[in-house]
Amino acid sequence: MEIGILSTSGGKQLATLTVDPNSTLKELKTQIHRLKSHLYPDRQEFRQEPRGKGLDESKTVAALGLKDKSKLYLKDLGPQIAWKTVFLTEYAGPLFVYAWIYTRPWLFYGEDAASQPMSQVSYIAAICWVFHYSKRILETLFVHRFSHATMPVRNLFRNCAYYWVFAAYVAYHVNHPLYTAPCQIQSYIALGFWTVCELGNFSIHWLLRNLRPPGSKERRIPRPTKDPLTLLFNLVSCPNYTYEVGGWVAFTAMTQCIPAGLFAFAGFYQMVIWAIGKHRSYKKDFKDYPRGRKAIIPFVL
Hints:
The protein is an alpha+beta fold. Helix content is 51%, strand content 10%.
């Protein structure tokens, strides 16, 4: 049977493929790549309507109800970059930028800055910041299993700008010679809470890694393990985001720094959007999904 492939932009005919009813969309992408070398599979997205939802590449032609002379629309997603590369670039930047400002104060505050005493909170904040992004880099290399291999390369610059600029903004204030730290009790309590959130975030990432077999896109309902830090799954769908936000709230309290608070709020806003999307997806895909769970904030949201 023949399937016509049209562009989502203007409906231009891109190709006519000879396929088997049991052929998957992934196999169709491979055929298109042979015909048009710049359209590698990760750059392609099939739709049944020009403005419709992207189709799962594991679906077969027959499962989609396509017949001889049917049409599919193809969206060119543009040049792609591997998610692992994206994460490594996003996280290496803040680590380097913060450490650069911390270790070379004379470059940013004048020659006398190096001889001025630095508060203990500034030391602790630097350790926490470097630990957090080192952890993220190591998780990217050894823990995370990505459901999507790539993302549009144009998004890399936006994502990096967010992390890198905020890193400079926070580091400039926390390491400034005129920075005034909060009392030690506040900082130590916040440090303890930050530590729990970092461990909790890692515990959730490890659980999610073991939930998905290597090389697959299989989805299962995440449930707590014997690790007590995973019990948050009883209350929310995305406890990794809950712990992440909690960690940055703790960092803000520890440093009592407005730029850190702005960074925490911006991250919270974005993670709420992601969490709500994942929460809805879980409820749609699993009829037995726990009803008591919220998206990111227990009992609230």
